[in-house]
Structures are given as C-alpha cells and as structure tokens.
Specification:
Radius of gyration: 53 Å
Structural class: mainly alpha
Largest sheet: none
Number of strands: 0
Order of helices and strands: HH
Strand content: under 5%
Number of helices: 2
Distance between the termini: 167 Å
Shape: elongated
C-alpha cells in the first residue's frame, strides 16, 4: 500500500506539472515601432553659417588645387612638346648633314671616276 500511495502521489505531481506546462500562455510579442520624424530639426544660425564657411573654404581649396594641378600639367606638356620639337629639329639637321655629306661624297666619286675614265680614254 505504501508503494501504491507513493506511486500515486508521484504520478499526481508529475501530471500536475505536465498540465501546468502545457497550459502556460506565451507572452505576446509586440513589434518595436520607430517614431516618425515629422520635421527636420533646425540648427542655430551660427552653426549654419559655420557650415557654409567651411564648405566655401573647402570648395575654394579644391578649386586652387585643381588650378595648380592644371597649370603643372600645362607646364609639363609645354616642356615635353618643346623637347620633342628640339629633338626633331636636331634629327632633321643630322639627316640633312648626312645627306649633304653623302651627296658631296657621291659628287667627288663621280668626278674622280669621270677624270679616271677621261685619263684612260686620253691615253688610248
């Protein structure tokens, strides 16, 4: 009888716990809502003026940097073009000198050949 009573008490406790666990309600989860912004916050005039001044200085600095960069590129381009012109002029002068020397050498050889032929013809 003791075992049966003990078994019934354990069974009663266990079934009560089981029923309590099954009937427990879960709390409702509500979605988080974010507040809507209706109007833009206004900044004090001094802050607006400071931002405007900083923006103006930044724009002016950017313009100055761009102008200096463009001038530097223009100067480099001018130097490269001048160097290319100088090299081309020197090359053309060198070609002209070589051509003149070749023509003079050809004229001298022709003159010597003609003189040699003339001497041979006159000897015969």
């Amino acid at each position: 009888m003791k075992k049966t009573t003990l078994f019934l008490i354990v069974l009663l406790v266990f079934s009560t716990m089981l029923i309590a666990g099954c009937t427990q309600q879960t709390p409702e989860v509500k979605p988080v809502t974010t507040p809507t912004v209706t109007e833009k916050p206004t900044l004090p005039p001094l802050v607006n003026q400071t931002v405007a001044n900083i923006t103006e200085k930044a724009n002016q600095t950017a313009a100055n940097i761009t102008e200096k960069a463009n001038q530097t590129v223009a100067n480099i381009t001018e130097k490269v073009n001048q160097s290319a012109t100088n090299i081309t002029e020197k090359a053309n002068q060198t070609v002209a000198n070589i051509t003149s020397q070749a023509n003079q050498t050809a004229a001298n050889l022709t003159s010597q050949t003609n003189k040699t032929v003339s001497d041979i013809v006159n000897k015969t």
